[in-house]
Amino acid sequence: YKSNNDNQNYLSTLQKAREIYPDDKTILFLLIDAFAENKTYQAITPIIAEAIKYEPDNLDLYYLAGFANDNVGNTAEAKKYYGKVLDLDDSNYDANLALGLIHLNEFLANKDNLEAQYSAQNYLLKANGIRPYAENALKGLSLFYETSDDQEQLDRVKTLLNQISNN
Hints:
Blueprint: H1 7-20, H2 25-37, H3 41-44, H4 48-54, H5 59-71, H6 75-88, H7 93-109, H8 114-130, H9 135-147, H10 151-165
Helix pairs in contact: 1-2, 2-4, 4-5, 5-6, 5-7, 6-7, 7-8, 7-9, 8-9, 9-10
């Protein structure tokens, strides 16, 4: 089914195999990969912790767990998983960016939330330090500086964004 791009039958077969062999790691990982490919994040969140137990040092699994939870609105769980990625690799761009954006959204929703403000700035600057010309981190910083009324930093970030868009 996979080689014929018959996703529905492929998923059905994997789910049935999982019912028959609930402790089979290979089936679990194939199922998670299939859900991720199909962007079916709500199906990943209930089973990803089990996969992590099999591979507790797998950065990609933790990131996927964070991303899936973030996409279904479980921001507390997303933060936990992204945080675990950073525990394993402090210089992971994607996890720093994701945490920065989560905290930025919290800050945008409540400009008096100093913890969210500080965390957003911290993670976004860390992501920007890892990849100085990554557009997503720069856009996040731009929104952050605009919201926090830091015109000097906003001008600096906008200049970088303009340089990127002109190349």
